[in-house]
């Protein structure tokens, strides 16, 4: 069932809700991805077969939601996710986050600990705005960022270049988690990452494994896995992880 929720700044945020048994699974898409992606639809089909509740949604500036991508920040996308959690989700929820969605899902779990009771990270990319600024842009791009407030970067995932703004980079600093001593989440977690991921280093998931705690989390490294993790065996692995985390929720 498609639902459109009104954000606090009057934007329509699109979500899809499949009613079913508990715990619910909620999928958090990646940067410039959407709820019609391969992993989002795969998990929906898996949950549908089990009669399990499932939610997927689009951040503002993505997919079917209103808003402009270039004007949005990590704070905005987190607030969109919290809106969906507060208005649609019935706890307990297992949050499954892909790439940037892994970061947003963790932030949402910290903000809504009574709702999100399990986490599956798929090529999680926490602190990616920091990584872009410090590791992944050229001197010329950094100069454009400071002088014009943005630079354009080619993407393997869309035809047009992505506009990276100073506003996005600055806002991301408020939400960095890899520099913490721990992530205070007393929930079961599974972190899946491809060792051949050239977009997000698998060491990010290893670091999350340490921060969440090895007693509460499992790290699965896929030897030939790339960033998308959308091949049939990888999709099956993701759903198996979701099922395992669901089974640990009481």
Structure overview:
The chain has 250 residues and is an alpha/beta fold. It has one domain (2-127, 177-247): Alpha/Beta hydrolase fold, catalytic domain (Rossmann fold), CATH 3.40.50. It has eight helices and ten strands. The strands form two sheets. Strands 1-2-4-3-5-6-9-10 form an eight-stranded mixed sheet, sandwiched between helices. The protein has a two-stranded antiparallel sheet with strand order 7-8. Helix 7 links the parallel strand 9 and strand 10. It is globular and about 50 Å long. The two termini are 27 Å apart. The mean pLDDT is 96.
Key attributes of the depicted protein:
250 residues; alpha/beta; Rossmann fold
Present the secondary structure layout.
Elements: E1 2-6, E2 12-18, E3 21-28, H1 38-50, E4 52-57, H2 74-87, E5 93-98, H3 100-111, E6 116-122, H4 128-136, H5 139-148, E7 150-153, E8 162-165, H6 166-172, E9 189-194, H7 203-212, E10 217-222, H8 232-247
Parallel strand pairs: 3-4, 3-5, 5-6, 6-9, 9-10
Antiparallel strand pairs: 1-2, 2-4, 7-8
Helix pairs in contact: 2-3, 4-6
- From the helix content, strand content and strand pairing, which structural class follows? alpha/beta
Averaged pLDDT, please?
96
What amount of the residues lies in strands? 15-25%
CATH fold category name: Rossmann fold
Produce a short descriptive summary.
The chain has helices spanning 38-50, 74-87, 100-111, 128-136, 139-148, 166-172, 203-212, 232-247, and strands at residues 2-6, 12-18, 21-28, 52-57, 93-98, 116-122, 150-153, 162-165, 189-194, 217-222. It has 250 residues and is an alpha/beta fold. The chain has one domain: Alpha/Beta hydrolase fold, catalytic domain (Rossmann fold).
């Amino acid at each position: 069932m498609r639902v459109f929720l009104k954000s606090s700044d009057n934007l329509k945020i699109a979500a899809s809700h499949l009613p079913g048994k508990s715990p619910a699974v909620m999928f958090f898409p990646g940067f410039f991805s959407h709820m019609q992606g391969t992993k989002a639809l795969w998990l929906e089909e898996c949950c549908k077969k089990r009669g399990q509740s499932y939610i997927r949604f689009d951040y503002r500036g993505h997919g079917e939601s209103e808003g402009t991508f270039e004007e949005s920040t990590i704070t905005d996308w987190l607030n969109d996710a919290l809106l969906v959690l507060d208005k649609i989700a019935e706890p307990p929820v297992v949050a499954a986050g892909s790439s940037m969605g892994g970061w947003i899902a963790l932030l949402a779990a910290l903000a809504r600990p009574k709702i999100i009771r399990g986490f599956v990270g798929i090529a999680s990319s926490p602190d990616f705005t920091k990584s872009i600024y410090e590791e992944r842009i050229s001197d010329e791009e950094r100069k454009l960022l400071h002088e014009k407030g943005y630079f354009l970067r080619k993407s393997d995932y869309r035809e047009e270049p992505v506009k990276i703004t100073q506003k996005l980079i600055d806002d991301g600093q408020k939400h960095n988690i890899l520099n913490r001593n721990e992530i205070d989440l007393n929930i079961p977690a599974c972190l899946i990452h491809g060792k051949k991921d050239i977009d997000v280093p698998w060491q990010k998931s290893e670091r999350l494994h340490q921060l969440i705690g090895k007693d509460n989390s499992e790290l699965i490294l896929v030897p030939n896995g790339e960033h998308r993790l959308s091949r049939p065996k990888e999709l099956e692995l993701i759903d198996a992880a979701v099922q395992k985390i669901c089974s640990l929720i009481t």
